[in-house]
Amino acid sequence: MDNLVTFLNAKILPFANKMGNQRHMTAIRKGIISTLPLTIVGSFFTLINNIPIDSVANALAPYKEILDIPFRYTVGILALYATFGIASSLAESYKLDKLTNGVLAVLSFLVSTATPIHVLENVKGVIDAGRYINIANLSASSLFASIVTGLLTVEIYRFFKEKNITIKMPDGVPPEVSNSFVALIPAAFILIFFWLLRNVLGFNIATFLSMILMPLKGVLVGNSLFGGLLTIFLITGFWTLGIHGAAIMDPIIRPFWEMSIAQNMSEFAAGTSANHLSTIFTEQFLQWFIWIGGAGGTLALVTLFLFSKSAYLKDLGKLSFLPGLFNINEPVVFGAPIVMNPILGIPFIVGPLVTGTLSYILTITGVVPMMMMRLPFTVPGPIGALMSTNWSIPAFILTCVNFIIDLAIYYPFFKVFEKQQLAKENNNK
Predict the structure, then answer these.
(1) Are residue 330 and residue 192 in the same domain, yes or no?
(2) pTM to 2 decimals?
(3) Closest by CA position to 333, among listed 231, 236, 230, 246
(4) pLDDT of 20-54, one tens digit each?
(5) Residue 225: Cβ-neighbour burial (10 angstroms; 0-12, 13-18, 19+)
(6) Are residues 164 and 239 in the same domain?
(7) Where is each PTS EIIC type-3 domain found (predicted)?
(8) The pLDDT value given to residue 410
(9) Whole domain around residue 55: which residue ranges?
(10) Residues 63 and 169 in one domain
(11) Structural contact between residues 403 and 292, judged by C-beta atoms closer than 8 angstroms
(12) Considering 154, 169, 204, which residue would you say is the last residue of a domain?
């Protein structure tokens, strides 16, 4: 066991940390996470528009189209916001002007993915003549295009800046004016480059990336039990190595997660039943059914600590319970610790695999609905499950049952760990 720990510390941990801190990976993670407030707010309008109380639903029916607008301008154009966030974050890491790079990246994304539609004649009662953009091209389905255009725009801008291919203004010119002139030549190149790519060569970045990467989505996110369990295993496995599992997986899996919940929300908003949406293994599925108290389902372990004979574990349980109730589990992960601790690491990984399998079976058989809403991760599990499945009582019950399963899985390992801890405390007396 000591050799294994030494190997993990020497070989795996440095590589994983390096990947997690790589500037492009960090920019993707920060940029996409920056859209979180928008998707949460948009989710609430979806919920308001689909309240399962007939009297309320009938009263709101005349305003259904108006209430749908906030959803369309949050979740509906998610990739547009993500583009700005990704480029700004990467530019900041290079100490470049964040605002300029964010704006140029949005330009790149729009030119390469959202070709305007020209309507030549009025269609009475339907649409007026003019140019229109289909906002579906700006949704989470184009998230990979936003990543590529965001990163590539900043790298092009950096190249021009480092090679001094810019217009320099005299000293004393305000920075905002100077930055605008510095960006003129890179902006022209960026615009022409992406315009040629999309409109002359006919290369659609979003379509190409979807064709290449969608098979991966089917593995990690979707309706495959193997893919869902693989995601759970990787996230919990990284955590046991002392690495924030979600942070490592975010650049790879978060675009798929965002696409999936946005698609589910759009389908639900269009009238599809929550039992017949596209994706089971959304991030919200993990959040409300499996990560009860945080990754690894650690609220169960914290609860056991509260009744421990060990003074240290009991105190740790008291300190960790309130954060755990709101799905924050760093105190117990690093305080017990679970990191590099095989005794607690095993149930930390196995528990979510078991509850994930049960939750999948009950979802695929229609006992519980799929996730149709995004809530803050700090909402307590049963309440989050209830709201995110269109007020499904079976979903609420499933979260409670999964908590009991976590308790049962953690218990024997907890007793072994408690015995070790008691021995240490007795030796120190």
Answers:
(1) no
(2) 0.69
(3) 236
(4) 577 888 888 788 878 878 877 887 787 787 776 77
(5) middle
(6) no
(7) 8-413
(8) 95
(9) 23-204
(10) yes
(11) yes
(12) 204
Count the Cβ atoms, other than its own, within 10 Å of residue 21.
10
Tally the domains of the chain.
Answer: 2
Which one-letter amino acid corresponds to residue 231? T
- What is the b/e burial string over 43-79, where b = at least 16 CB atoms within 10 angstroms of the residue's CB? bbbbbebbeeeeeeeeebeeeeeebbebbbebbbbbb
Both 285 and 189 in one domain: the answer is no
In this prediction, residue 26 carries a pLDDT of: 83
pLDDT in tens, 344-360: 999 999 999 999 999 99
pLDDT tens, position by position, 390-403: 899 999 999 999 99
Cα–Cα distance, 134 to 118 (Å, whole number) = 11
- Indicate whether 94 and 232 sit together in one domain: no
Mean pLDDT of 206-234: 77
Q: What is the mean pLDDT of the chain?
A: 85
DSSP alpha helix (H) spans, 114-198: 143-162, 175-182, 184-195
User: Counting every residue, how long is the chain?
Assistant: 429
For the chain, give percent helix, strand, coil, nearest 5.
75, 0, 25
**C-alpha span between 351 and 415 (Å, rounded):** 16
